[in-house]
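Chapter summary example.
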Amino acid sequence: MDENDLKALNNIEEYGCHVLKVMEGEGEPSFSYSIGINKKQNKPDVVVLGLNSELAHSMVNNYKDRVIEGEVFEPGRYYSDFLEGFKVCFIKVSKKHFEKYFGWGLWLHNGDDFDMLQIVWPTTDGKWPWDRDKSEFYQWAQPILNEEGELNAI
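The structure predicted for these 154 residues follows.
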């Protein structure tokens, strides 16, 4: 194990998860995701795509804290208190996306035997991924990681 592996394991023990921030790449948005929530709490880990890393990190930690307190997040429901003034919803991430996005999760679990939720956020003018008039940037910044790669209204 190297220093990064040990840091991740220590963060999981001390804080309940480790948050990874992945910078924007060629044709791919930035994203942040947790590892360790599934292992420690037996609840899904979580990913936020397309928001700045500080905001995404705080959303992941908010989710983790609420899970530790016993809150259960169901795919297809709206929740508040993640983004000031906006609701978010959760979707179950398909395992077909795990290799591309969640290498550290695969490492921690020695495979894909874990669950992941995506926190889906609206634009500042209230557009959601299922709205026809969403911008191309919004569509690019927040790919939908379910089986179909798209969402209908929740």
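To summarize the output: The chain has one domain: 3-141.
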